[in-house]
Each structure stands twice: as C-alpha cells, then as structure tokens.
Amino acid sequence: MAIHTATSRRQAAAAPVYAGAAARPQGGASVTLRGLARAFGDKQVLRHVDLHIPAGQFVAIVGKSGCGKSTLLRLIVGLDQPTGGHIALSGAPGGEEEPGSSGVRIMFQEPRLLPWERVRGNVEVGLGRDLPKAERQAIATRTLEAVALGDRGGEWPSVLSGGQKQRVALARALASGPRLLALDEPLGALDALTRIDMQRLIEKVWREQGFTAILVTHDVGEAIALADRILVIDQGTIAADLVVASPRPRHRGDPELAALEGRIIDALFNDQAAGI
Amino acid sequence: MSDATLKPVATAAAGAVAFPPEAALAPAAGEPAAAVKTTRSRATLTGRIANGNLIGWVVPALIVVIWETLARAGYLQPNVLPAPSAIVAAAIRLTASGQLPESIGVSTLRALAGFVVGGGIGLALGLANGLSRLSEKLTDTSLQMVRNVPHLALIPLVILWFGIDEGAKLFLVALGVFFPMYINTLHGIRNVDPQLVEMGRIYGMKQGELFWRVILPGALPSIFVGLRYALGIMWLTLIVAETIAAESGIGHMAMQAREFLLVDVVMLSIIIYALLGKAADSIARLLERLSLQWHPAYRK
C-alpha cells in the first residue's frame, strides 16, 4: 500500500488501517494513482499525486475550495483527463473498470435528474439499455426501496424535496451495483437534518454493497462520520492522510472524533503549526 | 417584421414558463366562488367559468353584446359596422351556398402546407445547427442575413416568380414560419442543461440515446414556443398573401365582398381568421400540455 507522507505512516502504525474494509465482501474496485497531475493553462491544480485506495475503502477528501479536490475526483472517474501521470482502477476479480461503465458511478452536488422522466425512469438511467425492460423496472423499484422511496417511483422529480431528489440520484448511481462510487459534495445543498439522514443512508448502502467510496466534501464532520480514511488536499498535493479508526456506527459528539476534527481543521488552516 | 421574428420570441419564452393561464387566474378564481353561495348550481357554474378556460370568453362575449345593442339602437351604420347578428346571418347564408366551407378549407390547407414545409425545414436546420458546430458555422451567417429581410417585402418578387398560384402563398408562408421554428429550436438545444448532458455521458448514453432522452426533451419547451409563434406568423402571412393575390380562400372572399360593399362578409372573414388563429393556438397548447406534463408550469 503506497502511503506518502510521514504523517500518514505514523497514523497507520497507531491503528489497523484497513481492518474494516477487509471484513466486507470483495465488491469494490481499487484505485491507484501514479504521479497524477492536472494543469489548466499555467495553473497547476494537482501536482504529482500518488495514492492507493484499496478495494472497499471509504475515503473522504477534504480541502478548501479551489484546492483541487473535485478535480482529483473528476480525474478518477474519467470526467477529465490528466496532464501527467496515470490512473488505474481495478475491479475485485482483477478486471479493469472503465469510467462510463456500470462499475464507476458519480453523484454530484446537484441531483441531475431528468425532469421529463418519472422517478423510476431516472433510476433506470443507471442501468443502461442492455437489460430487458421488465428487469430494469424490477431493479429500479428495488433500488428505490433501498433508499426509502419505494412508493414514489411514479412521481415526477419536480414534486420531490431536495433530499428526496438526492436519494433518487443515489438510487440511480447504485442501480447497476457499482464497484466505485464517487461522491462530489452530494450533500452540500441539503439542510443539516436531511444531511445527517443522507449520511446514514450512504453509510448503510456502502456497508451492504461493499463498493469503494470516494467522498469529496468541505464538511470535516461529515468526512469523520463516514470515512475510513481522510485525505487533506492543499495546494494540489495530499497534505495529510489520516485514518479514522473509530468503530461504526459513529456517534456525533464523540470526544475522540471531535479531537480528530480539530486536528484536521488546524491542518487545513495552518498546516505547519498543527504538526500533523 | 424582421425584428418581430426574434424579440417577441424571448418574451414569449419567458411568458410561457412564468405565466401558465391557471396560475395567472388563480387569485381571481377564489373571489367569485366565495361571493356566490346562494344556490349550488350558480356556485358551480361560476366556479367552472372562473377555473376553466371559459373565463377567457367573458370579455369577447361582453363586447359582442354591447356591439349588438349599439347596432340595434342605431348608433352604428350597417354599411360601416354591421351588427353581430347580421354577420351571423351572412355566415349562415355563405355556409348554405357552400362558399364559406370551401374558402376555409382552401385557406387552411394552404396554411398547413406552408407550415409543414417551412416549419419542417426550420426544425431540421435548428436541430442540425444546435447539435453540430460545423453545420452552424456553415449556414448560420447566411440564415441571419436572410432573416433580416421582411418576408412580406418579397411579395412583388414572389408574384413575378410564381404568379398568383398556390406556389406563391406556400413559399411566403414557409419562409415566414421558418425563422421562429429555426431560432427557437436552436435556442432550445443550446440551452439544454449541460449538467444533464454530462450525466447522460457518464451513465454511458450513446449519441442517439443522449439525443432522444436528454437533448430533445430538454429543448422541447423552447421548440413549442417557436411552434406557437410560427402559427401566428402563418396566419398573418396567409392573410396578406390572400388579400393581395388569390383566386380562392378567405382573403379572396373578403376582397370580393369589398367590391360589392358587403361589409358583413368582410367582417365575417376577419372573424374567421381570428377563430382559425385561436384554434391553431389551442391545438398547439394542447400538444404542449400533453408533451410537457413533467414541467411544473404545464401541470394542472
């Protein structure tokens, strides 16, 4: 396992890193980045990022806005092309996963539902066109039930609340049983209570399905509540790589988590002084 | 005329989304229903008028009543403005002779033929230029130059080319209908939410599926604005063309009546144009409502 900063090695020694992931069924894809770089014109957004994410791990990427965290996620799922280095995704059986294939899914801050398709139709978008219609409908209905919207399949998206729309978007991403789920601040536009609800839902489906999850967020508390491992991105590089070893389900207000949150926030605002 | 093809399109687009008829009428609907609680039948009738499309007919009906009253009282000269009853009588007379149904048929057929040709080409070019940069670069400059020529200014040229045959009318209607369809289709395709297109790509949609499932439905509201606007231009062009040069149709009927000073028939022709225009718009709105059920602005 390629881990990069002195900090993260210390952390890794202090706690068993991937114990949680190893216990789950091998349903995830592993992600390996080698010397990844992305520049927009003269601006170097990401510089030489090395990273290995083992299959089934839940990784959160935090950083200030403009630090390159969303760019990193878009590169991993193939929405953008790197200007240097390379990315390898491999599924559990060893096969390569292509972005745009049913093995890699992304959820955005906006639900991006098709307003002219009913809720079930939107979930079926996640299944492609290869399956027979009846089977697609059955899977869509089942996936909607998993996100507690089983009775809303026949509605237009415009009548749903913001949290419900994001749940439909989650169902669409999950419908094909992805090995890698990328989450680009999916809860950023939701109110605080709906957000906690959604965090629990995401954690639940991740534990059930065992995919690899990469969550980009600006909410450090959210990262700590959900992730096995937190990457702090600053000025285009991984400034810290931390393990969250607390058992699940995690309780908000746990002093250990609060201390970790304090350390991460210190790292974000003053990485020299924090000494992590 | 040339400005009219672009500018009202924008206002019409805003109007179509922001002011569905029900929403605009909703506050007014509550008052009469609350005021009239005397008998059940009256309350439901008032409710139906207020809630349904019937309320749009209250003002025209009132105008007809006042007009008839003034005509009967002798304030209106029959050879200047005949009474509504005289116009109805003319309609019955011409229907019985078969002249009215025939004229309506001829005019409607002309309008639709021009609309299908011009609207079809406008839709096709709008789609092509919206989807392909190459196609747009190749044709858009030429189209924008032609658009700035008022199409009715071509009437003398068109008469020289086609005489006063059907070809002349078809050409003018097609030309007039083309631009609103073209511009609104192009605008609709360009304004499809790029985030949805990106989503479609990530979910593995191929070009064809992306077009049918994301781009076309996204452009449809704007295409309907173009359709309704084109229908207005269609009747306008046809009226002018038939009035200037025709041997049949409603415009011809009106011009003939003018020569014999049959003011009632002239009035009848104008009213029929208005009704035909209204009918075309109603059909377009029905189609709009059926195909845009997902849109909150078009839902009951």
Automatic annotation (TrEMBL), chain A:
Matches recorded under Pfam families: ABC_tran
What PROSITE patterns does UniProt report for this protein, alphabetically? Answer: ABC_TRANSPORTER_1, ABC_TRANSPORTER_2
Record SMART domains: AAA
Name the Gene3D superfamilies on file. Answer: P-loop containing nucleotide triphosphate hydrolases (3.40.50.300)
UniProt entry keywords in alphabetical sequence: ATP-binding, Cell membrane, Membrane, Nucleotide-binding, Translocase, Transport
In the UniProt record, does the keyword Translocase occur? yes
Asked whether the UniProt record includes Translocase among its keywords, one would answer yes
Transmembrane residue ranges: none
Q: PANTHER family per the record?
A: ALIPHATIC SULFONATES IMPORT ATP-BINDING PROTEIN SSUB (PTHR42788:SF17), TAURINE IMPORT ATP-BINDING PROTEIN-RELATED (PTHR42788)
Q: Which family does it belong to?
A: Belongs to the ABC transporter superfamily.
This chain's protein is named: Sulfonate transport system ATP-binding protein
Which species?
Camelimonas lactis
UniProtKB/TrEMBL annotation, chain B:
Regarding the membrane, this protein is recorded as: Multi-pass membrane protein
The record lists the membrane-crossing segments as 49-67, 108-128, 148-164, 170-189, 210-240, 260-280
- Name the GO cellular-component terms: plasma membrane
Write out the entry's keywords from A to Z: Cell membrane, Membrane, Transmembrane, Transmembrane helix, Transport
**Quick one: where is this thing mainly located?**
membrane
Q: Which residues constitute the signal peptide according to the record?
A: none
- Keyword field contains Cell inner membrane: no
Has the keyword Transmembrane helix been applied to this entry?
A: yes
The record's section on Pfam families has: BPD_transp_1
Q: Where in the cell is it found?
A: Cell membrane
Query: Could you mention a single GO BP entry for this protein?
Result: alkanesulfonate transmembrane transport
Q: Which InterPro entries match?
A: MetI-like, MetI-like_sf
Where the record annotates domain ABC transmembrane type-1, the positions are: 100-284
Q: Which family does it belong to?
A: Belongs to the binding-protein-dependent transport system permease family.
Q: Which PANTHER family match?
A: ALIPHATIC SULFONATES TRANSPORT PERMEASE PROTEIN SSUC-RELATED, ALKANE SULFONATE ABC TRANSPORTER-RELATED, MEMBRANE SUBUNIT
Which function does this protein serve? Answer: Probably part of an ABC transporter complex. Probably responsible for the translocation of the substrate across the membrane.
State the protein's name. Answer: Sulfonate transport system permease protein
What lineage is this protein's organism placed in? Bacteria, Pseudomonadati, Pseudomonadota, Alphaproteobacteria, Hyphomicrobiales
